[in-house]
From TrEMBL, chains A, B:
GO terms for cellular component: molybdopterin adenylyltransferase complex. It comes from Robertmurraya kyonggiensis. Keywords: Nucleotide-binding. One of its GO terms (molecular function) is nucleotide binding. Belongs to the MoaD family. It holds the Pfam family ThiS. The keyword Nucleotide-binding applies. One of its GO terms (biological process) is Mo-molybdopterin cofactor biosynthetic process. This is Molybdopterin synthase sulfur carrier subunit. InterPro entries: Beta-grasp_dom_sf, MOCS2A, Mopterin_synth/thiamin_S_b, ThiS/MoaD-like. The gene is moaD. The keyword Magnesium does not apply.
From TrEMBL, chains C, D:
NCBIfam families: PRK12475.1. One of its GO terms (molecular function) is sulfotransferase activity. Residues 5-240 form the THIF-type NAD/FAD binding fold domain. This is Thiamine biosynthesis protein MoeB. GO terms for cellular component: cytosol. Signal peptide: none annotated. Belongs to the HesA/MoeB/ThiF family. Pfam families: ThiF.
Amino acid sequence: MNKILFFAHLKDAVGEESIRIDVSGKTVAEVKEFLAKEYELQKLDTAMTAVNEEFAGDEEVIEQGDEIAFIPPVSGG
Amino acid sequence: MNKILFFAHLKDAVGEESIRIDVSGKTVAEVKEFLAKEYELQKLDTAMTAVNEEFAGDEEVIEQGDEIAFIPPVSGG
Amino acid sequence: MDERYSRQMLFAPIGEQGQAKICTKHVLMIGAGALGSSNGEVLTRAGIGKLTIVDRDYVEASNLQRQQLYTEEDVEQKLPKAVAAKRRLKAINSNVEIRAVVGDATPEMLAELVGDVDLILDATDNFETRMAINDISQKFKIPWIYGACVGSFGMSFTILPGQTPCLNCLLKTLPVQGMTCDTVGIIAPTVQMVVAHQTAEALKVLVEDYEAIRSSFVSFDLWRNQYSSIKMSKAKDKGCLSCGEAPTYPYLEQENLMRSEVLCGRDTVQIRPPKHGDVDLDELSTHLSALRYEVKGNPYLLSVEMDGNRMVIFKDGRALIHGTKDIAQARSIYQRLLG
Amino acid sequence: MDERYSRQMLFAPIGEQGQAKICTKHVLMIGAGALGSSNGEVLTRAGIGKLTIVDRDYVEASNLQRQQLYTEEDVEQKLPKAVAAKRRLKAINSNVEIRAVVGDATPEMLAELVGDVDLILDATDNFETRMAINDISQKFKIPWIYGACVGSFGMSFTILPGQTPCLNCLLKTLPVQGMTCDTVGIIAPTVQMVVAHQTAEALKVLVEDYEAIRSSFVSFDLWRNQYSSIKMSKAKDKGCLSCGEAPTYPYLEQENLMRSEVLCGRDTVQIRPPKHGDVDLDELSTHLSALRYEVKGNPYLLSVEMDGNRMVIFKDGRALIHGTKDIAQARSIYQRLLG
């Protein structure tokens, strides 16, 4: 099982701060694609991904128990 | 085993951000007394205590695996 | 108005309705130092209806490093902070009604000012005033937001009467000696970070978005890269004399307050803490020497020369401030050093 | 000076030595909007030697809700932000040398300004300028501090050439459309919190306390009560064209920049992003309507009336800004809406 955390407006789009779902074996890119479809999230492809509070690239493979978070970079200032 | 986290100037006084030590079975008050002696910390009696990121009173008993943190309230402004 | 607050109304949790609420609300802010400057500016820019500012000090050179409403000219004129703050805030937003009160935030004064107040913002520099704010908040059912900082370390907690634990639940007793900005220093980013938390919570209270209010106690250290958020519901104490089932509001009572009196014919103010404490004179001496004050002492007392005053501090917390008959000034000096 | 910075020198990690360093350092700040106002004020109060401020905009009423250096008078006078900022900062600390540059922070300008600069502070409102700052930082080996915010959400990351990953490692490509303060709003506490992180890091860089520098990427949401700190060392990409083994500094090259040109005889500026994007016109239309702009559109383009200008945005990111021949103004309008 994995925990997926959503930050900022992603939290509102999904409707929850976190969900529990098994995505072990998938790459980060595949998880993004899956979630984008499931929750109609448009901007996941530009979101930074953290696995267990550490930066993860698109090709990283998720393991059992990993906690995944998505941080959408913003440009305002 | 327990993990004890030190914030702010307590981190400098102890010399580390966290230590690992078994204090299960002791109350929060007893842990404070023990640490105060061990590390010559004067102000632990007024520090707020959190166990597993939740407020804990002086009489609360520590269990195996609990993570303890001390936050010293300050008055500046 | 639409144009001025457009970016704030675009923020969905505020919107037009939230802005309309903000514009009718009255905030009482205790203190116009570092936290007060910055809190006051954020709320004034946000367009609150009325802001009452209470402060007993005047602007000094050492304030300029972090107290964002003040300029070199305010220092030259030795303006009271509440007055200098009002002047700048009016230039920023002339629509906000601002009342400047120069004086000590005693329980009596707080009770007088609190009439139509929707929120009390803590920007004081000592626990005694905070405990009085805490009791006033409970007695009159007005939310308040605790904020404090020293060095690179800061904290905040939102207190809603009838819901959250109160400051007395957390502290149980008045800490005798805390670190203060006058003893271990302070950097401006710490102030900004406390204020970010306080004003975000203030906006939630003002637009009545109670679900969004932070129920945890936040603390952080910007130099040591720490951040912690502690769940607080277990701290609520039914027996608490401030917020429990049979409240007595102890910090509004004379016997629990710091007493101060002008000593007859001596140009000296005596200050006595409510309980006999145990001041660490060695540590205090080290800090004050680092501050370049001339410090002499023995195991029973410490004598400090500072800016034309001489303060003698005894081990039990009692102090004599020589060279003044002004009680508010003497209390300010005392609390800046002893927290 | 001793008195003025006494509370900052009392803070042990700065001390007298740190203060002496701060007073000799030169910071280049790009942008004088919300982040720029507050960053500039903190550093000026802290007593940095020299501050160079670059900004292309003038003060507008909608800035006052969060841009802390500006007053109603600045709006009336339509002062350029860099000029108004300098005026206020000089009143706050006349010891700091302040240079105000009114203009667009192009790669050429950045390369010219960067001579003796010790640190670049990011206070811009768009990724294109940030990527140029990032390449300049790598090319000239100058640290920079990324900061950004929108709504109640903000983030910061400290980039040290030769040590940490850079912004190009994280983003890989320029995001076509981000949320901006002009499309989804912003509250002032978010600004203060980003600035708290940026200025704490700035002070660490200026006093050369490299051990204390935060190596994680911080992001937070003050309304949703979130805070996250992500370890970043794995993000460092050896093949990165900005900081890798064979850097080409792509965002300093003309072909990767947004192009803009005055259309001959038409009082119109055309803007073309470096790559064909895919703008979500529906979403943009919704945001702009909420902002009370008059918006018309079809599946291929959107036409927006705003403050005397009309902007036509095409689905590939190209835009025409009618009613101006001023390229800097046109770029500002474009980037405020499209990020």
